[in-house]
Amino acid sequence: MHHATNYRIWNRPQARRSAAAAFAFAFALTSHMPSEVLAQQTLNIATWGGAYGRAQAVAVLEPYARKTGTVLATEIYSGESSKLKTLIEDTNTPLDVVDVSAGALKTLCAEGLLAPIDADALKTDGDAADDFLPGAVSKCGVATMAWSTAIAFNRQAFRNGPPATIGALLDTARYPGKRALPNSAQRTLELALLADGVPPGNVYNVLATPEGADRAFAALDKIKASILLWDKPAQPMT
């Protein structure tokens, strides 16, 4: 199982500093801002679609819009860093906040495509760190959630004994059938190393080396003929 953290980051290439400050204070100062002022603002958000996007809209975006009168405009993407970079660099596509994975955050921040966040501006009554989990506040983002990749299988296909460990992913002799995997190195290589016996706590250290990457691809080569790669979250269910 893969765990990561998503971040919501301010970004507007043409006005990075002012945008960063605006987001940092948005929630803290909402109650002090006249509703007619907020109603004139549009918050442009790039986020994921599917069930995640719907849940986010119901739990976070819609309540915030009702409370503040802010108009929300969303741009849906599937988590690809390349698509997000294109959106950020397109001056015709205004973006204020982007929802990305921890890996994409690190890359985009290093490339200067995200606005830096002033941790001191996030303070309420005490230190900003008191309001977030350890490590949640980084140079360019604030963690908003934790997520995981769940592995599902057809119960009827393995009546003599269903898969019980991640190692079954690479065992097509005992567990024959197609493997639907994300068309993304970020998740699929991690799954491959776990299935190949790398302890969960060592996966990222191993994957950070050329030998570790080669090991992940070698593991996938074992089941290459049985792999179906998917691009959008709705596809594996289909």
What does this structure look like?
The chain has nine helices and seven strands, in the order E-H-H-E-H-E-H-E-H-E-E-H-H-H-E-H. Helix 6 (185-195) crosses helix 8 (210-221). It has 238 residues and is α/β, with parallel strands linked by helices. Helix content is 37%, strand content 18%. A five-stranded mixed sheet has the order 3-2-4-1-5. It is globular, with a radius of gyration of 21 Å. The relative contact order is 0.15. The protein has helices at 16-29, 35-38, 50-68, 81-89, 102-110, 185-195, 203-207, 210-221, 234-237, and strands at residues 2-10, 42-48, 71-77, 97-101, 142-149, 179-182, 227-230.
Tell me the span between the first and last alpha carbons.
21 Å
Q: Order of strands side by side in the largest beta sheet?
A: 3-2-4-1-5
> How much strand content do the residues show?
15-25%
Main sheet properties = 5 strands, mixed
Residue-averaged pLDDT = 78
Class based on secondary structure composition and strand pairing? alpha/beta
- Poorly predicted ranges (pLDDT <50, ≥5 residues)? 1-39
Radius of gyration: 21 Å
Number of helices: 9
